[in-house]
Amino acid sequence: MIPGSLKAVKAIGWFIEEYGIAQISMNLTNISITPVHVAFDEVCKKADARGIRVTGSELVGLIPLEAMLEAGRYFLRKQKRSVGVDNDELIKIAIKSMGLDELKPFNPKERIIEYLLDEGSNKLTDMSLTAFSNETASESPAPGGGSIAAYAGALGVSLGTMVANLSSHKRGWDDRWEEFSDWAEKGQQYKDELLRLVDEDTRAFNKIMDAFGLPKKTAEEKSARQQAIEEASKYAMEIPFKVMDTAYHSIEVMRAMAENGNPNSVSDAGVGALCALAAVEGAFLNVKINAAGIADKTFTSALISRGEEIAQKAKACRNMILETVEQKINEL
Description:
By secondary structure, the chain is mostly helical. Helix content is 66%, strand content 5%.
């Protein structure tokens, strides 16, 4: 075995006469030590030093989602572009940058481990806008206010993230791309968490329904059923509280963009702040209504008290952002 420039990598190369190309086969034994994109880029550097180029690559087997996401971020940074984009875009960048679709189509749903395992799941966030609206408007009690509040928050911080991405690519602001990329990446993290909570709030409601459906013939069954209802109700209170907390913290993105982002998009930062406050206040209503059925009043009082503090802070932030937005609009 000949030591090379990459750790945790076993590789062999050969020249294929009939095609007039060289091929390198690499086994990455630990992608936390040498990620896929680092191995690919190293081959490109070695090829370039010899006056040749890498024409593409092929993945044998499956790959973890994070490996593809990190590859996408890596190649965007090389281009000095914002990494604060959604997962689908990061994966597309990774595929194109490493030439994973040169030999045959690379289908993320079939090649990424998490996507393959998630196949067939029934998520609200996988619905179209029309289907989600129709499901909400139906006689089904879920999705309810908690899920809608989380989605409003996701839309709000998505607008803030959009302003960050636009600002990172604004002509004349080339030296600030990393500043706005960091904000966009942070916005994506808030957005992803709020989208997760859209479905989690509905799951929390279903836990309560399942608990109420437990048998209650014997004393033991009644006791177990009541305990299950209590635990499920607490969880159904905690989830909208998480929506509140996440939506409130996401306002920092809109505030930064209203103050320092592309002035032509300042109204979008303002709308984002309005959506974030709607998410906070809407989720708080669900926190309070779910408290009614919980026997542990110490638990409910503490959570409601924290919720009131978050709601007040969120409203104050919204007001400051709107003042800034109005001022910037008047200066245009």
